[in-house]
Amino acid sequence: MIYGLYNYWVVIVLMMAGFYCVIARANLIKKLIGLSIFQTSVFLLFISMGKKAGGTAPILIEGAEDVIYSNPLPHVLILTAIVVGVATTAVGLALVVRINEEFGTIEADEILEMEGEAKLKSWRDNVD
Amino acid sequence: MIVFIDIVLLTLLVATAISLVRLRNLIATIMLAGIFSLLSACLFMTMDAVDVAFTEAAVGAGLTTVLMLGALVLIGREEKVPGKGSALPLVVVLITGFVLIYGTMDMPYFGSPDAPIHQHLVDRYVEKSGGPDGEVGPPNVVTSVLASYRGYDTMGEVAVIFTAAVSVMLLLGVGFATKREDAS
């Protein structure tokens, strides 16, 4: 059945879109957004694995027999991961704001250029 | 029906992700990232992860968007239009993608009840956690595992959030009376 792995393939496409955003874009905010896309696609991967065909949410129904519940363990794992993900995004954004204060730009290549110039200047000062 | 909804939502997610990568306007990108989170929350809903769905909708689509917009207010600029970029990132991404897809070939099919993940442990939690004479009590198994069986882990999570909050405050200098002097 083709559909059997469809979820995983889409997750991989999303993951690679986020990965491309992180490595190909110089803008630091864009990099952070790419990181959060990557993160969300990992969440989708875990939740896809926890799904049982014909299952229902893992909230116990009293008195009911033979109910299929989806696997609650990946759900718990991902709940923790979502909150930690927001914490890392917040720290990343704070770093970007500080970098912008210091360099006046948030483009990674411009910052590297400035760093290189500063290093060259301090090296020359030392030689002279 | 579920399969249909699943495919539509996944296709929408891919469309959002691709336009996200291509867009230059940062505000539009952040809004699209919010839509991305909301769509994935819908998808979590169809895959029975109700707790994850509302956390993603509140935290991923709500809080993250607000944080990003807040940062953009402090930075306030468009993404620079780049010169000729190299093809290296695209090649790396394509190769990684193909390797990962090759890796999924061995995976159990979506929703299959005899996947290894459903064989161990889970039944014990589902059978013993809830009910009047259960080990924890609440009918929601996710709550039982999060707050009781894995309580230490959740406590560690609180420590992580606390550390993040402290570092954000230190980085942005919130609460210091002496304001940094302007360079100009």
Reading off the top of the CATH hierarchy, the class of the largest domain in chain B is best stated as Mainly Alpha
Query: What is the CA-based Rg of chain B, rounded?
Result: 22 Å
Number of domains of chain A: 1
Secondary-structure-derived class of chain B: mainly alpha
Counted by DSSP, the helix tally of chain B is: 7
- Helix share of residues of chain B? 55-70%
CATH 2nd-level architecture of chain A: Orthogonal Bundle
What kind of assembly state do the chains in view correspond to?
heterodimer
CATH fourth-tier homologous superfamily of the largest domain in chain B: NADH-ubiquinone/plastoquinone oxidoreductase chain 6, subunit NuoJ
Average per-residue pLDDT of chain B, rounded, comes to 85
Q: H/E order of the elements of chain B?
A: HHHHHHH
List low-pLDDT spans of chain A.
none
Characterize the main sheet of chain A.
Answer: none
CA(first)-CA(last) distance of chain A: 73 Å
Instruction: Report the biggest beta sheet of chain B as strand number plus sense, adding barrel if it closes.
Output: none
Number of strand segments of chain B: 0
Helix-strand category of chain A: mainly alpha
The CATH topology name of chain A reads: Helix Hairpins
Residue stretches of chain B low in confidence (pLDDT < 50, at least 5 long) are none
- What CATH first level of chain A would be assigned? Mainly Alpha
General form of chain B: globular
